[in-house]
Amino acid sequence: MPEVRRSIAITIDDTEIDAYEGESILQAARRFGIKIPSMCYLEGLSVWGACRICVVEVAGQHQPRPACATLVVEDMEVRTNTARLQSHRRTILELLFAEGNHVCAVCVSNGNCELQDRAVEAGMDHVRFDYRNPLRPVDATHPKYVFDPNRCIVCTRCVRVCDEIEGAHVWDVASRGHQAHLVTELGQPWGRSSSCTWCGKCVASCPTGALFYQGSAVGESVHAPDLVARLVAARRDHEWFPPVESPTSPNEQNGDDR
Amino acid sequence: MHDLVTIDPVTRIEGHAKITIRLDEDGKVDDARFHVTEFRGFEEFCRGRPVFEMPSLTARTCGICPVSHLLASAKAGDAIMGVQPPPAGVALRTLANLGQIIQSHALSFFHLSAPDLLLGMAADPSIRNVFGLMAAEPDIARRGIRLRSFGQSIIEAIAGRKVHAPGIVPGGIAHPMTVETRDDIAARVAEAKETSVVALELYLSIADRFAREIDAFGSFPSLFLGLANDEGTWEHHDGHLKVIDATGAIVADRIDPAEYRDFLGEATNSDSYLKSPYWKARVAADGPVADGIYRVGPLARLNLAETMGTPLADEALTVLRDRVGGMATSSFHYHHARLIEILACTERIESMMSDPLLMDSRVRAVAGINRSRAVGVSEAPRGTLFHDYEVDDDGVLTDVNMIIATGQNNLGMNATVTQIAREWVTGPVIEESTLNRIEAGIRAYDPCLSCSTHALGAMPMVVTMIDAGGQPICSVTRD
Q1: ipTM of the shown complex
Q2: Backbone angles phi, psi at A86, to 5 degrees
């Protein structure tokens, strides 16, 4: 039986829409084709609210709210693209660029990068902050993939997709504040991970050139962030296997009880 | 007692430099030095990067000859992977390098040097530039621009972009060539060949005006180094290293480029960021590195080749050899050599167009890390280019050494500047035309000092004369 969801009337940029109860501003906006830029949000994963690129203004609230982590309420009035929000987004992007080593020209994801796309959209033609130029060693120990923390913005998409979709939980965030960084296998080299299944969902979900396939040259890394939503929907809707009352594995059906 | 004359900056070369002329007590030129005052540190920030990123990363060294770095780096990557690129990948790389040589040589001749050659060394600096050339010789200027465009189109067709193209990768080429791009090149090659013939005829018609320059622009014996092949034809992409002396006698042959360290030393200079590579065997234990002087680039490649391997270029090579009596030892002949190379490139491109190999879809070998050290070599427009990489077990660079053509010509450029200064500087006053001749002597090598191009002619220049106590006694500024 189809799920019945209660409608909630809200206004986004002077357009009245029928959002669903329990839905975030970002989800409602996207269903109606209203564009709100985002980075750490990925449909199909839990909400993290880390990057703050999706900030919107809500009438009656002084502080901008992250659209991904703010649920709709009746009669909510939302603005998505005011001068103040544009300024905030550009500042956030500049801080991200200054914090790591993001050199688009020589990056495997040049031309296929959400950070680059957001910067272009925001008109970020220069960075007003001093670059930190951190020294971060590349982890190329995995036979199939490479992790370059210089290009990581700690959006944690890889952490969530590995934990929530693949169920392997190879990735974690270590340290705090500006020293926060991703680790594999509690700080062991990725290539020594016994929990990594080599599934590649982290690479598919990465918004930048931080995760890519071994052997990738500049501009060759292509991500597949829509993969997660497709997997979640397919799993929910049993797209690949008809639902069975008593689940048995293909091996069991063949008389193999391994 | 010494006086110093400083020319800073030198213009219409790729990058920035200055020249110091040291006078002796009689006011005669004692010595002259060519300084590179920029430091970029590419080798340092390549460390820690995956080897597969190196072609595009090192290509950023230069906007004029990025393909040369792409090729040397990709070839080092091939060797690290332990693979030979598929034949089509090799053919496309070769074609890209021919396009690279055309566009860079066209820039050197038509945009940078033709103003001196066609308008005269002593012409008004305000018109002695590519715009002055357009006004005086509109047809040749237009042809030069179109020729350079042709070379760049080839690079774009194979590697994806005209400048800093990403498509030359370890293992081969990123994408096969399309029929449309091949046909575009084929449709333009006849005009390019015609232009190179016209340019050669033009050069030969004016070359006799420069008899004094030919005698004084780096006319000295030296070794010549470059890639060579078993057939003795002009080589620009593969093969082995060969070294000859100024008489044409073979000094070393069939050297594996990976063994370059056994033969080449690199001297650092206290007054320039440009190192001075030298031929080790010619330098005694306590002797000056200048004894190991060798030249690379078009002049060296032509001196090394028995033939160009194509009909018109072979005729042109015969004309050059007849003019110089065999070996070309004056650096002024770099201009002539460049034009012959352009002609050879257009002929080779023309013959490649009908080869079905170009359309083969297998262009890239794939492999992991199978060696910890490798050297990639290509003939850049300006000369032999070495990329020497060491990687860890995961393919991350632990050490990098790049030997650039301009560095290898450093000793030659110093000797050239000294020779020109001795010929034209006779007292405390330096004529503008003399300044330009000194620059033009450097420009004969088409030095690529970084990635900036001063193609607009007379840039600001400061000439300072300093007495023995280090006090400036006069200063001339050219805006």
Answers
A1: 0.85
A2: -60, -40
